[in-house]
Amino acid sequence: MSPALRVSVKTIGARPRPIVAARSALDFKVTPPKSRDQRERSNGVFTQILESEVVTMRKSLMRTHLMLLAITFAFTSTAFAAQSTAKPSASAGTSWSVPRTPEGHPDLQGTWTNAANQPLERPKDLGAKEFYTPEELAAVNKKGYLGQQASTPEAHYDFAQYGMYGMQAKFAPNLRTSLIVGPEGRVPAMTPEGAQRNAARAAALKGHEFDGPENRNLLERCIVFGDQEGPPMIPPMYNNNMEIVQSPGMVAIFNEMFHDVRLIPTDGRRSHPDASVGLWRGDSIGRWQGDTLVVDTTNFSGKVPFHGSSEYMHVVERFTRTDPSTILYQFTLEDPHTWTKPFSGELVMGPSDGGIYEFACHEGNRGLPNNLRGARLAEEQAPKNTR
Length: 387
Prior knowledge:
Number of strands: 9
Largest sheet: 9 strands, antiparallel
Helix content: 25-40%
Strand order of the largest sheet: 4-3-2-1-9-8-7-6-5
Strand content: 15-25%
Shape: globular
Number of helices: 6
Oligomer: single chain
Radius of gyration: 33 Å
Distance between the termini: 89 Å
């Protein structure tokens, strides 16, 4: 007897009156017995009714079970038939076609992670080697996150204790030796202009790093996470989740850290603002190129430099859905005021295990005031002739 049937019988046995009443169409009526013989006869009648109900329920359940089997078989047959005619996925090796929005564009929506154990720049000892073998990658991963075995890169903070150590993340398959592609695999050399600008910036801050919060970088001040929020979006060690939402003429990318949203219009109705307008994360405009979302970003402020970049940096990103659980993310950077030539990179994004959680940076940002307080204390304790 199935669990469902046992529960039903138990319920019938506990409350027999509704069943007797339900058979009133058969003109059956139970009168209160007045003697032992009448009670036995009455119980015998009820037992027959109960057995009849159980048999009826078992037949009903059997019919329902057979019907569900038939529906399941029909659905499975339809699914296999649909898969047999779908476009094959080169990366997954199974039948798959790109999901699409009602507007017909590829559907990139969902919660994704760009966690990776590849550094931005290729280690120099690898030379022009762009890909590991699976065995080589396994050996690299054993060395820890970006080659750092311990989960406590800062002595006072154990990232693994909070599930924030890089190797605790789920990586999408990627055999690349670095995010930057090409035989060099590294950020190009700086132009003389770029080197001079960055040297002047460092010299202006020297000795004034802790004068006030304005002297600290925007990351430390919990304003913008620069490289990680992008563009380009370089994976941090933790909290590397993002949610992509699409609507007609717009794509939104919501980064968990620092909990910012980048709105990317794709309707072609506007262009970048005047060059005098500078934004921390630049101005992004998207367009669809086949099954790829291409995002063009200019108008940076220069206050969130990417490896020394200027406000003239130009970033082109490409998002391509390659299988049900993968988005290929590619980027190209160009800044003639900083680097001698453009360079490109890519990584593989996979599905996140959960949703987006609030990253409340300011609420727990004790580091910034404590650093400034420590600087004031050091000034008070320093000899007068060294102030």
